[in-house]
Specification:
Number of helices: 2
Mean pLDDT: 85
Largest sheet: none
Low-confidence stretches: none
Structural class: mainly alpha
Strand content: under 5%
Distance between the termini: 39 Å
């Protein structure tokens, strides 16, 4: 039987994974919309570039949490004794 605290951690990791997928999709849509509107319609969005940057930053932090939940986070051995 799985302990309740492990079930919560697994659920939280799954939520973070889906949230990171949504961030990637949102960032891709923002960049595609910016390119199409800029070069096809010659009328760029003024806020989409900054929004894509903010979504990318959130994606990095959400990805850190999801990787930690799978125990795939990076570590560096600074001193080996």
């Amino acid at each position: 039987m799985v302990k309740p605290e492990h079930r919560f951690a697994e659920g939280l990791t799954a939520v973070l994974e889906y949230l990171s997928m949504a961030c990637v999709a949102a960032m891709a849509l923002l960049v595609i919309a910016q390119v199409v509107l800029r070069y096809v319609f010659n009328d760029p969005l003024t806020w989409s570039e900054e929004m894509a940057r903010i979504v990318f930053i959130y994606l990095a932090f959400i990805g850190i949490g999801a990787a930690y939940g799978h125990r795939r986070h990076m570590f560096i051995d600074a001193l080996v004794i």
